[in-house]
Amino acid sequence: MNHLTDIVSIATSGSGYQLAVKQDGTVWEWGKKSDSSTETQTPRQIPALTDVSQVSAMGSVNYALKRDGTVWAWTRNQETYEPGTPVRVQGLAKITSISVADNKVYALDSAGVLWIFSNKFEDNKLKLSPPARLAGIPAFKQISTASNGQMYGIDAAGTAWKCTLDMSSSVLKLSAKPSKIFPELKVKQIQAADGYAVLLTTRGDVWTYGKKPAGKEGKVNGLRGINSIAAGEYHSLAIDSTGQVWGWGGNKWYEVGVPQNKTDGMVYLPEKVRTPVTVKVNGNLLVSSFPAIMDKNLVSIPVKDIAKALDADLVVTSSAYGSTYCLKYKQVTVAFKSSQTEAEMNGRSITLPMPVYTENGATMIPASLLKEMGFDVKWDSTRSELNIQSR
């Protein structure tokens, strides 16, 4: 994606709008222009923001934490989609992190004090409530928030806590006393989602509090040397010390990053997320809902989307014995069937390095088949990028 390099912080509204902070402290936006719009915005800088360390995205209202510990808010015009002038959130200083949930902003300061405020619009103008200190909680060094007032934190000793805001009250308060989570653990990171939390210990182990995402609470087996974690609504991710990403939980939409091998769409134990493969066709990024797949040093690609990108003809014929695919480009025609390694190109038989197969509803072919057809196919191992050029 153009311009998006050297990123130190990234945030999403959850509905298609994103923000990112670069190492130089500039802020960039891209994605859906509004919740109701189908128009999209390519990455562009928000010029009025500098010296920023972190961002939180809500869409119509967004927040930035500057390196000096101040917090700033700005809106987006719902007609022109242009960003408004950032305003400083009064009453906050020495803030170390910010997060948003349930239309509330949570700001943690250097003393471990948590401040919460909300926003609303009056006469199309943004109104911020005065930040209020949340009483009755330990001094936290890190927090993570979820919906329905659920909040998790880590204190200076590495103990994890669960707190719940009283969402029915107009006064900022807890609905119950904070409770410790797995007090025997020394935790260095916690990430919350709806109904559960993922904990990372100083030893590099991962635990889950709550039975999401894989139906079991406690230590997550099969993970060691983990450096970072993330919690989605139905799946979780972890990065180990080698940079390998692991995923587990709900995998209906390939969100775990591995094949759908179970009928219930679940991945119950962490699996290595496949190496991401970028595909470019004649210099343009391949637009596809189905990712290219690297397996045993062989790259497979979705044949329908590749045919469309190459302006080739693809005819699929179904019978009681399965489907036959006929891919034609200029004077070259190749026919093949699913689950087979034999293909026929212009009347002669060729052997594919791997069978044609179906994954998540897409028919996948080895990229080397395009090379047999006369396309220039090159693999860039340093960028994990497959380049296909017409001849």
UniProtKB/TrEMBL annotation:
InterPro entries: Cu_amine_oxidase-like_N, Mao_N_sf, Ran_GTPase-activating, RCC1/BLIP-II, Reg_chr_condens
Superkingdom classification of source: Bacteria
Record-linked PROSITE patterns: RCC1_2
GO molecular function, one term: guanyl-nucleotide exchange factor activity
One Pfam short name: RCC1_2
A GO-annotated cellular component: cytoplasm
All copies of domain Copper amine oxidase-like N-terminal, residue ranges: 280-386
Protein name (record): Copper amine oxidase-like N-terminal domain-containing protein
Upper classification of the organism: Bacteria, Bacillati, Bacillota, Bacilli, Bacillales
